[in-house]
# Entry
Amino acid sequence: MATQNLSISSIKAGLTTRFIGQNINYYPSLNSTMEVARKEARRGAANGTVIIAGEQTAGRGRLKRAWFTPGGNIALSIILYPEAAGLPYLIMIASLAAAYAIESVTGLDAQIKWPNDILIKEKKVAGILIENEVKGDRVAYAIIGIGINVALRPDTISEIATIATSLETELGKQVSKEEIIINLLTGFERLYLKLPDTEVIFKAWRDRLVTLGKQVRAHWRENIIEGLAESVDESGALMIRLADGSLTQVVAGDVTLREK
Ligand code: BTN
# Structure
């Protein structure tokens, strides 16, 4: 499938948000939208400014991994200035907004693997990276990076060939990046505006996690923790029941779902 250029004017025309995406900076090619967004945030960019890349040459993922964004996919970063209490919920908001956008535009089932991988049929289709600058108890800025594989052909990238998928691979036809972005930014703002009320956000995220109720292996702080992923707490941490009956909290890291 041929990749289409992104039409920023149709994104702007379709957006009815109050502030997210009211200011969009588009770059046909850049290293990482996280880098540009950080510089813009330090210069005082408007709340809700979105940096979008046609392709990224040095996209980055969680845990110092690379993130591949050749042309035809979605890579964007949203600049926000939230209250500190809202920070743990950004992961939940971004994961939910990405899953909802994928489902409503394509009809595909999107699941969330703790903490914020978006999967279709157990393969990763989207990822979220959040970078904050906190000074004392004040948030200087938060940058929410979202990457969605739209036209990506995972079989052409050996590092992710067996673990990743894309919307067009799953659907077998072209998907509008503009529609996904409009849906994503609209859904993100709708959830973000619920803050400081966090209950709806937390429960919707928890209920969509494929991780809960599964045997998992978590890598965190040089440790490997194996057990039953029993629940998540309001801070977003995963609670794992170990074989000895004790409960361990995993705040960040990576989780592999295991067959029983
Ligand atoms: C992950 O799952 O490891 C997170 C991937 C985050 C990728 C996005 S693409 C837009 C933004 N720019 C980057 O360099 N990374 C994030």
